[in-house]
């Protein structure tokens, strides 16, 4: 009988929370608007592909070979030839004016050296302001040149006597994302941020708002249990976060055709464990802050650090060792890996069991910490 | 609850410090069952601190506090079941309707509106026509009635109201006190704090509190009776000048402004103040009025503060 009353009490607490959530005018646009905007815009914007690289040409050879090389670049959809001259200074000036990304300098005697000695030099001068872009331009341009060079070798070794000298042609094949489509890679990552953002902020803000308005006082004098209060606060936001994930996956499937290779049940199961951590953090932040501004500031700080270290843009394996150690407490890191593993690779439970149990322990710690910090008496 | 004296609230040597500041400096009082007890004092006197300790929201730094013979530190969970609290600031859910607020608080106390409707009927009936309206859209007086209904919905034995009439218009204030007196008649023990001295007369007993200390506890009549001196109301056309002039007269003990009059006491009660009129005329005052009056609670408060 007593237990029945308790269950009923939680029911009324939940009912009140949901009434308030759906009565909040910014809530519905946030639940539906944010994922659409984040996914549709960010997936396109957060691209690692380089298109329309502006190239300036200094061709001092003016031979058939050099023309052939230039036309390789001109014919590529990634390059945009924006000028040519014989003066290096003129070319450098365009880099200074931010009009050129890369200068290619073909030296005098390019064709002659290539035919006679089967070896020649080409110089690339790349604008290094953006390190990532510069290394990409280098990689692209080098591969265009080596592609061209190999063709020549192939051309020159057409003679029957040298047939066995045909160079080895390395062909790379990328598994799980064969075309290296960055959208397929980015979308699950952005989905992780989205789910985390919504659940962490909303939980923390919700409780602090009760503090600000003073309703928490009124609740504290009631016989409501800590446990009931916290369940009442966590369950609604967990449901909203799971809904966000489903909604985001649907957008991904419909608009970006992301593959869903693994089990959705596993993904949602893992997400629940992940949300225990995130909601625990949100709850903890709310217990140590007394205004919504404080919540915003603290949550924003952690979000930013965690997102940048999570491996959404860069591989965590290439981070320094200390950073990899810090990632042990970064919930994003675990989910970022697992969502990609399940969606793109079809990993099963045992493949993600390390992340699963790590988060389970983490979540238990965070929630206990938050419950311990939440006081009904000061 | 088992106590022969039926002391519902018992406070002994209560102290509360916030880091460096001592807000409550050793307060003792008791409230018996069915009593309407007032805590009267200016802002910052420590009224809210005392109430937050009584409502188990805060632990005392020192001293013993028992509610219904239960210890506020050890048995706070039990106490909360029998306590109704109306904080100083309106703290119900602004985005829930009148009915939803009441329903929610009834439910978390494990009861329903119907079960205790009789108790709140008088009060709730006045706002029931607006029961679908959001709490944020209620007027000040209506908010106060809703807050009182929510504090009563679980039929508490003790009702604690922290400055319920601050910022409420005169008509609503009067209505509110009438409601409190009706609740008292139903056997509920009520503790109320207020900065308004005129409300003290409506309490069974009052404690005058200043700077974290109780200056006097008694029935309003006895507190006034203890004044024991003659009190005069003085008025002239230039009140500001009058204060200055009266304070420089050495036969006068105290001068306090009260609306358009100044209340004064003199060092010897045999003095019939004829000399005073001459002095004031000499200072160029016109329209001088002097009459003997009965002291009120505020006069007593001022007297005690000296």
Short summary of the structure?
Chain A is mainly alpha-helical. Chain A has 14 helices and 4 strands. In chain B, strands 6-7-8-3-9-10 form a 6-stranded mixed beta sheet, with helices on both faces. In chain B, strands 2-1-4-5 form a 4-stranded antiparallel beta sheet. A 4-stranded antiparallel beta sheet of chain B has the order 12-13-11-14, sandwiched between helices.
- One letter per element, helices H and strands E, the order of chain B comes to EEEHEEHEHHHEHEEEHEHEEHEH
Give a count of the beta strands of chain A, DSSP E runs of length 2 or more: 4
What's the quaternary structure here? heterodimer
Number of structural units classed as domains of chain A? 2
Helical content of chain A stands at: 55-70%
**Roughly how many Å is the radius of gyration of chain A?**
29 Å
Low-confidence stretches of chain B: none
Give the topology string of chain A: H per helix, E per strand. HHEHEHEHEHHHHHHHHH
Spatial gap, N to C terminus of chain B: 40 Å
Q: How many helical elements of chain A?
A: 14
Helix and strand layout, with pairings?
The complex is a heterodimer of chains A (378) and B (306).
Chain A: H1 2-23, H2 27-45, E1 53-59, H3 64-75, E2 79-84, H4 88-96, E3 102-106, H5 110-117, E4 123-126, H6 131-156, H7 182-213, H8 215-220, H9 226-256, H10 264-288, H11 292-309, H12 321-326, H13 331-345, H14 353-373
Parallel strand pairs in A: 1-2, 1-3
Antiparallel strand pairs in A: 3-4
Chain B: E1 7-18, E2 21-32, E3 36-40, H1 47-54, E4 62-67, E5 70-71, H2 76-81, E6 83-86, H3 98-108, H4 117-127, H5 140-152, E7 158-162, H6 170-185, E8 189-194, E9 205-210, E10 213-218, H7 220-225, E11 231-235, H8 239-247, E12 252-258, E13 261-266, H9 274-282, E14 289-293, H10 297-305
Parallel strand pairs in B: 3-8, 3-9, 6-7, 7-8
Antiparallel strand pairs in B: 1-2, 1-4, 4-5, 9-10, 11-13, 11-14, 12-13
